[in-house]
Amino acid sequence: MKKILSVILILTLIFVMSLAPFAEEVASQKEEVVYGILDPEGRVKNIYVVNIFEDSNITDYGNYKNVRNMTTSEKISQKGDKININTSADRLYYEGTIEKNELPWNINIEYSLDGKKITGTELAGKSGALEIKISVDRNPEINSMFFDNYTLQIALSLDTKLAKNIKSNNATVAEVGSKKQLTYTILPGQGADILVTADVKDFEADAITINGIRMNLDMVINEEEFSDQISQLINAIKGLDGGAEELLKGVSALSDGMDEYVKGLRAFRNGLSELGSGVGKLDQGAKSISAGLLELSEGKGPLLQGAQEIQGAVFNEVNDRLFAMDLGLPPLTPENYEHVLKDNLMFTPIKAQLDGVVQFTNGLKNYTDGVTELSLGASGLAGGISELNSSISEIPKSANDLYNGGVELNSAIGKLKVGLAEYKQGTNQLKNSMSDIDSEISSTIDGIMDSILGSGDEVVSFVSDKNTNVSSVQFVMKTEEIKKPEIDVIRGEPEKLSFWEKLLNLFKLRK
């Protein structure tokens, strides 16, 4: 039995040892810097990857044509796509040349001189009206993670001695000595079409550089505080909606009362035949009505002031919220808010709120003006009755004028009622539309941040999927310079110079 167990154990060990060479070693932690060498048209000529390690026993993967230790003289072992290095260096760099010349971005650069296409090589030393078109889009042959998460920065430098009238949209322009540097930022997941124009003479240009990095902005958005502010705004809108409802009820009651008043005027006009001895009493009653309405009209000031204070409070509250959001908007007023907010859908709910409160204030003013008109009408009524009392012959005409004035006043109050009903409908819609605004704003902010920072996918190796422990990947791409070819000078015997020519040479004055 012991012999059998021993044989089984030996066979098991042999089997396990035979599997060991086939097991993949875990890749070491590293950083990758990808260098792409491009021709003047943006085509990839070579790709070099600098791999950076802080381990002593390094295992890495990649399909390289050749590799080079950039830190020490220690040998690199390369078997297929597997690379091993044993090093004593604290931080080791090795370079590998990629077999496949593919980058995550397709970059195309076209040159036109005086309206005709020309290659970058042919452009060297030429003069004329130059156009440079740079297009960038995703390369479907490469993992889309890089295109979706990396920000590109393209830098193009032109010597102002060789290029004049340099123009380009969407460029950040900086003067660097005698050169003008144009820089473009392309956000993750976005392509680009760039146009640069200039008038050039004896043209040369430095290399165009393109860097690809993952953005990391130190931005903290306190969504909880923002949500609290939105909740306060929603509660204020609910209060505004409730106040509008109460005001509408009051105006409806006033309208009903005016209907009765007009009916009374009609009955008064039709009952002129019964005036007779009651004219004196009617005169006193009309004066009382006139006095009461005058008192009501004189009391409109506090009511209008209250409405203005409500309007001011709403604008102040909205301005406080917008100021807290740090959007750089000017303070909103009833005169400018439509112009400031009209082109931004994000502020549509806020604009609707402000539309409502402005309509409310204007409607209340119309209401108080109507009361004033009513007071004037009552005053006219009293005057008419006084005239009636003094001259019975003018009774029919005065009564008819009084009735017509009442009809007009009743019509004005009816319009005020309709306007307030529409305003109430608007405040109700505003209240309903604001119910989910906090989540909508939060979603919008997340979308904006994603467009800047990318989708947040995990960092992966550009070289091989087997490298599962990569902390960062950076891309550095560079085109060839556009330079005039150097002219070989055939050197003969040294020129014999006179004293004067030697003196001019000394002070660099000889041509």
Task: Summarize this structure as a short list of keywords or feature phrases.
9-stranded mixed sheet; 11 helices; elongated; 511 residues; 5-stranded antiparallel sheet; 23% strand
Q: What does this protein structure show overall?
A:
This protein has helices at 2-19, 120-123, 144-149, 223-270, 279-298, 300-325, 337-341, 348-390, 395-433, 437-453, 499-506, and strands at residues 30-38, 44-53, 57-61, 64-69, 77-79, 82-86, 92-98, 105-113, 116-118, 128-138, 151-159, 163-168, 172-176, 179-186, 192-200, 209-213, 470-479. The protein has 511 residues and is of the alpha+beta class. The strands form three sheets. It has a nine-stranded mixed sheet, with no helix packed on it. α4 (223-270) packs antiparallel against α9 (395-433) and α8 runs antiparallel to α9. 25% of the residues are buried.
Explain the layout of strands and helices.
Elements: H1 2-19, E1 30-38, E2 44-53, E3 57-61, E4 64-69, E5 77-79, E6 82-86, E7 92-98, E8 105-113, E9 116-118, H2 120-123, E10 128-138, H3 144-149, E11 151-159, E12 163-168, E13 172-176, E14 179-186, E15 192-200, E16 209-213, H4 223-270, H5 279-298, H6 300-325, H7 337-341, H8 348-390, H9 395-433, H10 437-453, E17 470-479, H11 499-506
Parallel strand pairs: 1-17
Antiparallel strand pairs: 1-2, 2-7, 3-6, 4-7, 5-6, 8-9, 8-10, 10-15, 11-14, 11-16, 12-15, 13-14, 16-17
Helix pairs in contact: 4-6, 4-8, 4-9, 4-10, 5-8, 6-8, 8-9
